[in-house]
Amino acid sequence: MFAINDYPELLLHIKTIAGRVYGVNPSGWHGCFCPYCDDATRTINPRHGHFWIAPSFPYGHCFRCGAQVGLGKFLLDTKFTNQELIHRILKISKFTYGTDSSRTTSFNRAKIRTIDNVMLNMKNDYVNIRNNFPKQYIQYVEYIKSRCLEINPINFLMQPRIIDNDISVMFMNYDGQRITSRSIGDNKSRYYKESGEKHFYYFQDISSIDEYDTITITEGAFDLINLYNYNYDFRDSFFIAIGDSNYKGLLESLINMFLLIGEYKIKIVFDQGIKRIEQLTQSILNITNILNPQIEVQMFQPPYSKDVSELMLLTRIK
């Protein structure tokens, strides 16, 4: 059985890579700067690295760029000099992970399109629909105004789409991943899944998330947009919309995959009518305490309406 603490020379190497940001999280994972992305230079004064090495399995994972590598490959790539120990680690693991993982996470940092290209394509699509589907385009403009008042939808990565001659609003995230489309024409209750992977909606650059002390998580994209624009208690947050009713599973996934490190205040906003809210909120508190006790969790619900989009008023429930 592999145990990283049995290899003091290996730990010293990790500490050398990490410098002053070296850390061990509550689950025993050892953290340092990622050698496969610009982790060490992403900010002038980084508080921590994003590459974490498992305590009882020869494996490392960057929670920023998504790199997943065997510990033996990590040691080779970071110029570890003890070749005998490298071969021993490779023998223990019997395989290595490639840095280009086929397993996609919701925060895969390998961008195919830049945000500038995404917005340019959106502007072109707006012009196309306005010129060729004027009636549906007016429906789209009026719907956005009814949900979010006076905003520029492109700034929040929303665009109109025509599906089966019906108008819908499509959401993308900052990384150019299509999230979902919602019909706003004749089939108002219809949603269209945009990809086989589960991605989250965010309109801010997630590589700058370290600059925020607070992360706000909502179920719907419109909730997120309205909190950002009209509720100043939440304005200085990084915003993430889950877009699914599976709160517990997806919130645990978020915390486990990406928020495993760092000190954050997380504000979770639920719609009204969530079943077994007491059990759900307690379960989320329990899992965050296990994965990262440095995370402070606050939970909110709208007191009078179904969701936050209608009144932007929230009551804290935990």
Count of beta strands: 14
For the record, the CATH architecture of the largest domain stands as 3-Layer(aba) Sandwich
- Please, how many domains? 3
Helix content: 25-40%
Structural class: alpha+beta
Low-confidence stretches: 95-113
Mean pLDDT: 78
> In CATH, what is the class of the largest domain?
Alpha Beta
For this structure, the CATH topology of the largest domain is Rossmann fold
Through-space gap between termini: 41 Å
- Shape, per Cα inertia axes: elongated
Strand content: 15-25%
Number of helices: 9
- Report the C-alpha radius of gyration, rounded: 22 Å
Q: Could you give the order of strands across the largest sheet?
A: 1-2-3-4-5
Helices and strands, in order, run as HEEEEEHHHHEEEEEHEHEHEHE
Summarize the biggest pleated sheet. Answer: 5 strands, antiparallel
